[in-house]
Amino acid sequence: MTREIFISGEHQRRDGDAEPAPRRSSGAVRVGVPLSAVPLIVSCNGIQSALDPAGEEARQVATLFWVMTVGGLAIWAGVIALALYASRWKRGAITTEAAGRLIVWGGVVFPVTVLTALLAYALWLMPSLRPFGDQTQAGLRVEIVGSQFWWRVVYHRPDGSSIVSANEVRLPLGRRVEFSLTSSDMIHSFWIPALGGKMDLIPGRTNRLSLQPTKSGTYRGQCAEFCGRSHALMAFPVVVMQPGDFESWLAARASASPGVVESRSAETLFLRHGCGDCHRVDGTQARGTSGPDLSHVGSRLTIGASLMTNDAETMARFIAHSQSLKPGSLMPTYLDMPSADLDAISAWLKGLQ
Ligand SMILES: [Cu+2]
After folding, report:
1. Which residues lie below 8 Å from residue 295, measured CB to CB, with a gap of 6+?
2. 58 alpha carbon to ligand 1 midpoint, in Å?
3. Ligand 1 midpoint to CA 165 (Å)
4. C-alpha dihedral over 337, 338, 342, 344, to 10 degrees?
């Protein structure tokens, strides 16, 4: 990649030149090496970076990371300086007593002090990374169930009502949210790097995680425990919204989409092709639960757990080719579905806002 960037840069420059300068290979090396550092630097910020925090927990994890990194670098520099001193400038052997003192101070006292200080700092951070009980005051509880290779997302409101969704998590800015995490098949791991640490989803067990977003925006979460062939394609968008917007978004999801009433024929096709055995669509006969809830699928940002952007065309592509797009997933392919049926169903699903 580095090379391609360099070469296209060189071409652009050359096109404007009246007299192209002769190509110098040393230029490629000089430009290419700093360029190879670009991905490293770029990956420090963005929608899926633990070093570009948008949440209280992520901020603390990032601070811990920088303290450890800078501390480690300082010690490394000290050791290299000592090694250089010993190999280059020190003349003659040191006495046995001096060697003993060096081992006791440099090899025992120093590492014990530094490591104890770092451990104490990390332990001191820990309670605030896992705030529960009195500290939580979480108004909202979000239940996440990991399944091959998608996420069931259920919002439990303080008044006891719940809203079922999938493959997308929306959160109110500044509010503490409690996640309860479990799995329906194997071990997955729930991780939104920009918001905080990761937590496993384990069948038969419910783990808890508490997060507080501090910056609005759209981030990316990812399954962080290898769970099968499409593990890398098991991701989800995370949208942090203003609390008011979040409440109205949630309220709109509490009832059937207006799109449902409009197209009875597409709904019939959906049921006739057996989609309703695995998928639920609010306000219809489709009551399946082994696949993602599709009640408001049209309003989700992505299709197939962050696999593709969401429009009628990608929807149709996913339905017809789910196995080649997402190998090993439990969504059957519908290669033989008449294209009129496929288009009608996709347009109807996209209309479920
Ligand atoms: Cu997974």
Report:
1. 164, 165, 253, 256, 257, 280, 281, 282, 283, 352
2. 21
3. 17
4. -140
Q: Give 259 Cα–ligand 1 centroid separation in angstroms.
A: 31
55 plus 200 within the same structural domain: yes
Q: From the CA of 47, how far away is ligand 1's center (Å)?
A: 19
Ligand 1 centroid to Cα of residue 177, in Å, is: 22
What pLDDT, in 10s, does the model give residues 264-301? 899 999 999 999 999 999 989 999 999 999 999 999 99
Task: Tell me how far apart the alpha carbons of residues 310 and 318 are, in angstroms, rounded to a whole number.
Answer: 10
The residue written with tokens 């399944």 in the block is: 147
The rounded distance, in Å, linking the Cα atoms of 212 and 186 is 27
> 194 with 216, same domain?
yes
- 79-96: per-residue pLDDT in tens? 999 899 988 888 888 899
What is the count of structural domains for the chain? 3
Q: What is the CATH number of the domain that holds 86?
A: 2.60.40.420
Cα-to-centroid distance, 33 and ligand 1 (Å)? 36
Å from CA of 240 to ligand 1 middle: 23
What residue spans of the chain are helical by DSSP H?
A: 2-16, 25-36, 38-42, 56-84, 96-102, 110-129, 243-253, 259-262, 264-272, 312-325, 339-351
Which DSSP category does 233 fall into?
A: G
CA torsion sign for 148, 151, 156, 161 is negative
pTM above 0.85, yes or no: no
Amino acid at 250: L
pLDDT of residue 113: 92
Cα of 183 vs centre of ligand 1, distance in Å, is 9
Q: Which of 298, 285, 188, 185 minimizes the C-alpha distance to 252?
A: 298
Report the separation in Å between the CA atom of 198 and the middle of ligand 1, taken as the mean of its atom positions: 12
Do 204 and 64 belong to one domain?
yes
